[in-house]
Amino acid sequence: MMVAVMAIASLVIVGCAPQEEGEEGAFAPFGETYELRMQTPFPTGFIMYQAGNNWAMSLNDMSGGRFNATMNAGGAVVDALKEMRAVHEGVLDATYTGAHYHTSEVGFAGDLFNLYPAGTDPWEFIVWYFDGGGAALHQEMYDRKDLNVKAFLGGMTSAELFGWFAEPVTGMESFEGMKFRTAGIWGEMLNEAGASVVTMPGGEVYESLQRGVIDAFEFSTPGVDFSAGFHELGAYVHGPGIHAPQAAFEVLINMDVWNSLPADLQSIFEHSCEASLVRSWSLVDGADTVAITALQDYGTEFVKLPDDVQMAITELAHEKYAELAAEDEFFAKVYKSQTDFDIAFRAFKDFAQPDPDLMTP
C-alpha cells in the first residue's frame, strides 16, 4: 500500500510541475522573471501616469512576480513622445501612450485610434475595437509601416476639456493667429483655421502658457488637467470637448519581446490591458467628477463653447476626413469601418437604451 501511495504521489507531483519553455501552452518556469522597462509620455504627477503605472503593477501582481515591469515617466529613458520609436528599436520593452503622438510615423489614422474631432464616444469606440474589427486594424497600422510592435488597447477617458485659453473663444475668428498647443488631426484643422499649432509634451505646457509661449492649449479631462495644476494659470476653461469626445490609450510592446514570452504570460499581458481599459476609465471619470467641483470652488472661469463654433468644427472635421481618405487608403479603411459601425450601433442604442434624462426623478 505504501508503494502504491508513493507512486500516486509521484504522478501528482509530475503532473503539477511546470512545463518546460517551448512546449505548446507552456508556463514560464517558477523563479524565471521577465523584465519590462516601460515609459509613458506623462510626468509622475499626471493621472494618466498613474493609470499607466497601475497597469504595470497589475502585470506584476497577475503574473505572481514573473513579470518585473517598471513604468517610467516621460523623459526618464527617452524623450517624451518618442516612446513608440523606442519600443520599435528595443530601447524600451513597452509603452503606455497615445497613437496620435506618432502620426508622423503611422499617418493620421493614428488619430482614429485615440481621439479626433466629432468622433466616437468611449463606449462606441470600445465595442468597435473589440467586436467591430478595430483591433485588427490597430495592428495593421503598425505592420504596414514595418514597425516592430504588438498593439493593444489599454486605457480610456471620456471627453476632454476643449481647452484653456488666455481669452474666451467667441467664434472661429478667435483662432486666427492663436499659438495653440495640440497635435494630430485637430492640430491640422486649427492650422487651416488660422492658428499656429505647437506640439509639446504635457510637462512643458504649464510654463509655456505662463511665459506666453502659447496662448491656449488642450490636454485632457478635468481630473487630468486639475492634477496638472492648469487651473492656477488664470486661463478660461472651455467645454464641451468637441475636438475629443473620447481619448483611447494604447499599450505597445516590442514584437521580439512579445514573441519571447510563453503563452500564459502573453495571455496575462493581453487581459491585463483589458482590465486596465476599464479601471483607467473609472479612475479618470471619478477624478473628473471631483475636479469639476474643485475647479468651481477655486474660481476657475468656465466658458461654454458657442454652438455655432461646435457646428463649424464638426463641418471642418468631416471635410478634413474626406480629404485625408482621398489621400490615404488606410485612413479611409479605418474611418469607414468606424463610421459604418457607429451608424448601426447608434441605431440600436436609440431604440433600446432609455434616455437617462427621462428616468431622473
What does it look like?
The chain is α/β, with parallel strands linked by helices. It has 2 domains: 33-156 and 246-285, D-Maltodextrin-Binding Protein, domain 2; 163-244 and 288-354, D-Maltodextrin-Binding Protein, domain 2, CATH 3.40.190.170. Helices cover 48% and strands 14% of the residues. The protein contains 14 helices and 11 strands. The chain has helices spanning 2-16, 47-62, 83-89, 103-106, 109-112, 122-131, 134-143, 184-192, 205-210, 222-227, 255-260, 263-298, 307-327, 329-352, and strands spanning 34-39, 67-72, 94-97, 149-157, 163-165, 179-181, 196-198, 216-217, 236-239, 247-254, 302-304. The strands form 2 sheets. The chain has a 6-stranded mixed β-sheet, with helices on one face. It has a 5-stranded mixed β-sheet with strand order 2-1-3-10-4, with helices on both faces. Mean pLDDT is 91; it is low at 1-25.
> Uncertain segments of ≥5 residues (pLDDT<50)?
1-25
The overall number of domains is 2
Average pLDDT reading: 91
What is the CATH homology-level superfamily of the largest domain?
Bacterial extracellular solute-binding protein, family 7
Distance between the termini: 73 Å
Strand order of the largest sheet: 7-6-8-5-9-11
Spatial shape: globular
CATH class of the largest domain: Alpha Beta
